[in-house]
Specification:
Elements: H1 4-14, H2 16-20, H3 47-55, H4 59-68, H5 74-82, H6 86-103, H7 110-124, H8 131-139, E1 144-147, E2 157-165, E3 169-177, E4 186-187, H9 195-198, H10 203-216, H11 226-243, H12 247-259, H13 261-264, H14 275-284, E5 298-302, E6 306-307, E7 310-320, E8 327-329, E9 332-345, E10 348-360, E11 367-376, E12 379-389, E13 395-404, H15 421-433, E14 441-444, E15 455-458, E16 460-463, E17 469-474, E18 477-482, E19 489-492, E20 500-507, E21 513-521, E22 529-534, E23 543-552, E24 559-566, E25 569-574, E26 580-585, E27 592-600, E28 607-613, E29 627-635, E30 638-639, E31 648-652, E32 655-657, E33 661-666, E34 670-677, H16 686-700, E35 706-712, E36 716-723, H17 726-734, H18 744-753, E37 761-768, H19 779-789, E38 793-798, H20 805-816, E39 821-825, H21 831-842, E40 844-850, E41 863-869, E42 873-875, E43 879-880
Parallel strand pairs: 34-35, 34-37, 37-38, 38-39
Antiparallel strand pairs: 1-2, 2-3, 3-4, 5-7, 6-7, 7-11, 8-9, 9-10, 9-12, 12-13, 14-16, 15-19, 17-18, 17-20, 20-21, 22-23, 23-26, 24-25, 24-27, 27-28, 29-30, 29-40, 29-42, 31-32, 31-41, 33-40, 35-36, 41-43
Helix pairs in contact: 1-12, 7-8, 11-12, 16-17, 16-21, 18-19
């Protein structure tokens, strides 16, 4: 093992030639010489052009350019400065941060992290353009800083130590020094001859060394030659190691930086922008290229029909074919036109879109039609469309103002009412699926309502002569058998809507299971989901099996793919509906499972569904449910992240249980619901309540979060379903009006229902004056439902009087039992502290988990849970239902 000090000397000796002359650039791979510039599709602006265009931007866009200077690529900056509207710049900004999330393997949090660093950098450094500030912005704070007190020999010096840096590896040291007569620290550059080390020395010491070198230098040798440089490192080593307390650290830093000299120059470079990203930006940006040949177009618009409250806006552009050039492949010629469009409303970007149109060269039309349909609500908009010939780059940019009218269609003739229209339609659809009536199939008819409660009739559709009886199971327990058609069952689902699993098993003549179906009800309103529709229950399945899948995709999102697995083997990947695939089930493998996985474009986590195949008709269900406890520990009123697993103790009904899961999560995306009181008693406070709700979403929601909005008076109403756009929820808030009574408890149940199937950090915010006057559910029912949901409730009471003890007690208990909090305010301006508290709790939590004892059966009574910490105040849910 070579001692560190010796290793430093050897490294410097090896580097003597490097320090004495400029490094020889690495030889370029001849294969790379002709590689085109990745930014060639973006016109490069001169420094003067960039300065002039930046000066013309709005203040917020000038701030954006200044803020992101350390991390923006030249090609990105040139594109941003070439955009022609503020709306396009806003869209670019959103895409810019999305790409940075992708580059850094984060999900919607990089922007917030960067701006937090930027604010700290402005406080800590004189200029955010200096080397230390840029290092801090790109790579975060160092794990340790060593400052030199050797002012006799060295300029002011700092060594930043990082446990890991992407380019340089682990245990990295970076040497910063303050050059003579300058106020900012600079990253030391080991390349530059003897002057590189000389830069670190004080002025007096550098002069002394230079004089010594001059006295030794032959008259015919010019300064800064290799001979002089070869002597200086050793003198430098001896002086620093003997005279400076931090000498070893300094020399280790110098040694590391000499070895990493090639990669050091890349430390301040932003991650490379992929060529596909550049092309995507250019294709989706409505930006005119002044150097492109111009296309002539004819624009027209019509409004042929409507879809609900929206009008079909059909825009047509005619492009002369003789101005286009076709692409040729294998003798076939095709005209290809790329279309990027924006719709603006009140000066703001309303939506954007992109299309590609392909026309075979043999088309006879002299003008090729581009037809674009957009569904817009009646209003006035500005349409901007860029059409580009993909083969020549010729383009046209067409801008028009469009007044979208409301379309009135004749009302359909009134049909005779059905007993259950939704169920009747579903039965008819199921019958259409049966291509062979002799095939043995059993399907459960889905209920006609989204929320299932009270007494309901469970209907089935059975085909084939083999079915002699049907067993009905509820939540894993057999509850009834029907031995003659119709195979139906009246079932009481209770007053409060809970997620329930219904299974129907078809029995043959020997009472053996031959087929079946399974259905879950009250599954919530998560907009992203996948379900294997068929088969749901298959005790005897082998050979080719038709697998049908149903996929729900959120608004404003795109489905990337659906994968289908047999056990862990991927059988198929589907990109478009219908999602039906035939899978061969091996006859000799016994029990197995089908798994369907849906992926969205972007960084959203996938969702999946699993169906067991070739299992017995009934199986004993063991309680392996992991009870998760999202936990916040407050020390001095602020959440702490300093605790370890050993700091916690979990009691299940007073008995200690082992902790099976422990993690600390920070800045996870939030799924937040808000229930806002719109009853008549809120009349004088409605404006404040709406303002409070708006401030909450504007303050708390970040990129990657999603939210929904419920308003309640006589009954709760969904004003905005789950959306990742704060603007959607704010639009729902604008519609809230105060009238009628207060159904607070119903609103709690209905709002919590929306969280079924939603994973991750969740919270429900309730804004109300607190007194319930109209609910169907009792307070106890809403409390039990809240306990079952595991969603923390944060109650904000507006104008609740101090003597309303019962109102406060019930609201406090509802929030406390779920791990939330209550706040009482008189006006919206008091909410800043409230939102800071809620956000700090939700975005930084410990997740503790334990498995209940095997002797605790599912369906048992409520069990109290206590979490104790070695310090601080603990906030978590107070129990669970097995």
């Amino acid at each position: 093992m070579i001692p560190k000090a010796v290793a430093v000397v050897l490294t410097l000796a090896f580097a003597t030639n490097i320090l004495g002359q400029d490094p020889t650039p690495p030889k370029q791979d001849p294969k790379q010489e002709s590689k085109p510039d990745r930014s060639e599709t973006i016109r490069k602006l001169s420094r003067r052009e960039r300065k002039a265009r930046t000066a013309k931007l709005e203040a917020r866009h000038q701030d954006f350019v200044a803020d992101v200077t350390p991390i923006i690529l030249p090609a990105e900056l040139d594109l941003f400065l070439s955009l022609e509207s503020d709306q396009a710049r806003d869209a670019f900004s959103d895409e810019f941060w999305r790409r940075r999330d992708h580059m850094n393997r984060t999900t919607g949090v990089f922007r917030d992290m960067y701006y937090r660093r930027l604010e700290l950098a402005k406080d800590q450094f004189k200029r955010v353009e200096n080397d230390q500030a840029r290092m801090f912005l790109l790579h975060g704070a160092p794990d340790e800083v060593v400052r030199s007190n050797c002012q006799r020999f060295l300029q002011p010096t700092e060594i930043w130590k990082y446990e890991h840096l992407p380019l340089l590896g682990r245990d990295v040291r970076l040497l910063f020094y303050k050059p003579r007569h300058q106020g900012d620290y600079r990253l030391w550059n080991p390349v530059g001859g003897a002057s590189a080390l000389n830069e670190l020395m004080t002025a007096a010491d550098a002069i002394t060394q230079q004089s010594a070198e001059d006295s030794r230098r032959p008259a015919q040798v010019a300064p800064n030659t290799q001979n002089v440089a070869s002597a200086s490192p050793y003198a430098f080593i001896n002086r620093i190691q003997l005279e400076c307390a931090e000498g070893n650290e300094i020399m280790l830093a110098v040694s590391q930086m000499i070895q990493s000299r090639v990669d050091l120059v890349k430390l301040f470079e932003p991650p490379e922008l992929d060529a596909e990203d550049v092309q995507k930006i250019m294709r989706s940006a409505v930006v005119a290229n002044p150097n492109a040949p111009q296309l002539n177009t004819e624009f027209s618009v019509r409004f042929p029909t409507k879809d609900g409250s929206r009008t079909d806006v059909q825009m047509t552009l005619l492009v002369p074919r003789d101005q286009l050039s076709p692409a040729e492949a294998g003798g076939a010629e095709v005209y290809t036109l790329d279309v990027a469009g924006e719709v603006l409303k009140d000066g703001q970007l309303w939506e954007k879109y992109r299309y590609r149109f392909d026309f075979p060269a043999e088309v006879e039309a002299r003008k090729l039609p581009i037809v674009i349909d957009r569904l817009l609500r009646p209003n006035e908009y500005v349409s901007r469309i860029k059409v580009t010939d993909a083969n020549t780059g010729a383009e046209a940019l067409v801008e028009n103002t469009i007044s979208v009218p409301e379309i009135f269609l004749p009302e359909p003739e009134e049909a005779a009412p059905a007993v259950n229209p939704a169920a009747t339609t579903t039965v008819a659809e199921l019958k259409k699926e049966v291509t062979d009536p002799s095939e043995t199939r059993l399907r459960i008819v889905p209920p006609g309502t989204e929320i299932v409660s009270g007494l309901q009739t469970i209907e089935t559709l059975a085909t084939g002569k083999s079915i002699k009886a049907v067993e009905f199971w509820l939540d894993g327990k057999k509850i009834a058998v029907r031995r003659s058609p119709p195979f139906t069952l009246d079932l009481d689902f209770g007053e409060v809507p809970r997620m329930r699993r219904i299974r129907a098993v078809a029995l043959g003549a020997d009472d053996k299971a031959i087929t079946g179906d399974e259905l879950e009800v009250n599954t919530g309103t998560d907009p992203f989901g996948i379900r294997i529709v068929s088969p749901r229950f298959a005790p005897q399945l082998a050979g080719p099996a038709r697998v049908e899948m149903d996929v729900r995709v959120p608004d404003h999102e795109k489905l990337a793919s659906v994968e289908l697995f047999w056990n862990e083997t991927r059988m198929a990947t589907l990109y478009d509906a219908p999602f039906v695939q035939t899978v061969v089930i091996p006859a000799d493998e016994g029990a197995g499972y089908l798994r369907a996985v849906a992926h969205l474009e972007g960084d959203a986590p996938p969702v999946e569904d699993v169906v067991m195949v070739n299992t017995p008709a009934y199986m004993e269900e063991l309680n392996v449910h992991l009870v998760e406890l999202p936990t916040t520990v407050l020390v001095g009123g602020k959440p702490t992240d300093k605790l370890t697993e050993k700091s916690f103790k979990v009691l299940d009904d007073g008995k200690p249980v082992p902790i099976s899961k422990f993690e600390y999560v920070r800045n996870l995306p939030l799924s937040v619901g808000m229930a806002i009181d719109s009853s008549g008693s809120m009349g004088n406070r409605m404006e404040e309540a709406v303002k409070a709700g708006a401030q909450f979403f504007q303050k708390v929601l970040r990129k990657g979060d999603k939210a929904f909005l419920v308003a309640f008076d006589n009954e709760p109403r969904l004003m905005q379903k789950w959306s990742a756009k704060a603007a959607d929820v704010l639009a729902g808030l604008a519609k809230v009006r105060a009238e009628d009574k207060t159904s607070l408890y119903d609103a709690v149940v209905y709002s919590l229902y929306n969280f079924h199937g939603i994973r991750g950090q969740r919270a429900l915010v309730v804004i109300s004056d607190g007194k319930d006057t109209a609910s169907k559910f009792t307070y106890d029912q809403s409390l039990e439902y809240a306990r079952r949901s595991g969603v923390p409730i944060y109650g904000i009471g507006i104008g609740i009087r101090s003597n309303d003890a019962d109102v406060k007690f019930k609201l406090d208990k509802l929030c406390r039992e779920t791990g939330g909090s209550t706040y009482y305010i008189d006006q919206a301006r008091d909410l800043q502290r409230v939102y800071d508290d809620i956000q700090s709790e939700l975005r930084s939590q410990y997740i503790l988990g334990f498995y209940p004892s095997p002797d605790i059966k599912p369906g048992s009574k409520w069990r109290e849970v206590t979490v104790q910490a070695s310090e601080g105040k603990v906030k978590t849910i107070k129990g669970y239902f097995p």
